[in-house]
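Lab manual, section 2.4: Encoding a predicted structure.

Procedure: take the sequence of the chain (259 residues), apply the prediction step described in section 2.3, and record the output as structure tokens. A sample record is shown.
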Amino acid sequence: MDDSTAPAFRALADPSRRLLLDQLFERDGQTLGELSAHLSEMTRFGVMRHLDVLEGAGLITTRKVGREKRHYLNPVPIRRIHDRWISKYAAPVVGAMSALKGHLEAPPMAIPPDEIEHVYSIYINASPERVWRAITDGDDTVQYYYGTRVNSDWTVGSRVSYEYPDGTVAADGEVIEFDPPTRLETTFLARWDPEAEAEGPVRHVWELAAEDGATKLTVTTKGLKRGSKTAEGFGNGMIFIVSGLKTFVEGGRTAVPAG
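Recorded output:
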């Protein structure tokens, strides 16, 4: 078994952990107490241990909101299972993997009551400096970011754009924070679709942290509106980008879809 997908496979083997992921798919950002209510026969400590396994496998991420710790579904490892196994052995395993694929292709995660927020994270076997360059260097982004080249002088307040090979602007925005190699925040306005463009910009936050010789990359998209064209476009798009970035930086070959 591919080492990079083994932890996710092991975590998904337990029906209680799959149930917890299903509940986060239905309503993201739940607390331990809220998730424990779905496993009433189990102690809170037991539920917490299952959540620890899911977080260790990268299938969920957590963040503190006030005094509460909230849990978010992170479908990037499922995307990598798809890339590693379904795309290679599509015919024999597509039935067995359909539930995982359903998670991957489902609508974006929601934060009640009015907004959708994506929180995706992944470990990359490279230094933060190398991952940072992959995010901010146009020669790198064309390899995994839907064939687009990022352009900016990366000063706060300056423009950032993602352009197709023919010069068409796929998306653009403004640099809000630039702190290499740990944090980049920008606005992001989709230009590829008139409806999405009319909905206005969202915010991207890229956070990098060195951990045990690798880099933990967390990408958060804020300000998406439930049912919007932009949210629909980000449902799978950002998963593909984060997964492709990891593959590219670690020396693998990415499949860049046409713009």
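Check your result against the sample. The beta strands are 60-65, 68-73, 110-111, 115-124, 149-151, 159-163, 169-179, 183-190, 202-211, 214-225.
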